[in-house]
Specification:
about 220 residues; 3-stranded antiparallel β-sheet; 7 strands
Length: about 220
């Protein structure tokens, strides 16, 4: 009896996963250029939970919140920025105005398509709009929360000296990641969660601050041991 129960549960699990896979796969064709990243546009890996883009769609842009629900792609969803990086959902999927509809040719340039649910996958604004940003852009770190390391990305419209530092919530300096001259363009820095002395700080919220060319911006991130 026990063996039969285990077999039955295994079969039900497989059927459940097949249903989820089928549900996710048909939605790939309901967003512009969805085939480039497939199910990971909306999920953290195949079979994983929803990422921020997938959660945004499920909560606000589906005609039914079940396995048969369809994505409601349009100007509203295109204008959102699910992963809080430097580009909207539409810019990342090469349809900034949300004008694409199912059956239309794929919009934009496939090589410039990035993942709207992953802040580490970002098409630069100047590549999607044709204009260069006039100020430094500091993106949200990814992953966040993180352990053991996270990536911080930023864009500078002109060369110059920048300072990128990590602080704890008490305002104490934890680490200096960049302190020097950088060229124009996108940059990324990896923080391994260590302080200036190579020690691993305690779990908690940390602030990272970017300063340069008359610009200062601070964002939060969460380190978990």
């Amino acid at each position: 009896m026990k063996r039969l129960f285990v077999m039955l549960m295994s079969i039900l699990t497989v059927l459940f996963l097949m249903e989820i896979s089928m549900a996710r796969s048909f939605r790939v064709d309901q967003i512009p250029n969805g085939s480039k990243f497939g199910c990971t546009n909306c999920h953290t890996g195949y079979g994983g939970p929803r990422n921020t883009f997938g959660t945004q769609i499920f909560n606000n842009y589906m005609d039914a919140k079940n396995s048969s629900g369809n994505v409601l792609w349009g100007p509203a969803l295109a204008a959102e920025n699910a992963d809080l990086d430097a580009a909207t959902n539409g810019q990342e999927l090469q349809d900034p105005d949300g004008a694409w509809r199912i059956g239309d040719p794929a919009p934009g340039e496939l090589s410039l398509v990035s993942n709207p649910g992953n802040p580490a996958s970002t098409t630069a604004i100047y590549e999607t709009t044709g204009t260069l940003p006039q100020t430094i852009i500091l993106q949200q770190n990814y992953p966040n929360p993180f352990n053991p390391e996270t990536t911080i990305r930023f864009f500078s419209p002109q060369p110059g000296h920048v300072l990128l530092q990590i602080f704890n919530t008490g305002g104490q300096l934890v680490s200096t990641l960049v302190n020097g001259y950088i060229p124009t363009g996108e940059h990324q820095v990896i923080w391994t969660g260590q302080d200036e002395n190579g020690n691993t700080p305690v779990s908690g919220i940390y602030l990272y601050r970017l300063t340069g060319n008359g610009f200062t911006e601070t964002r939060q991130m969460l380190y978990l041991k």
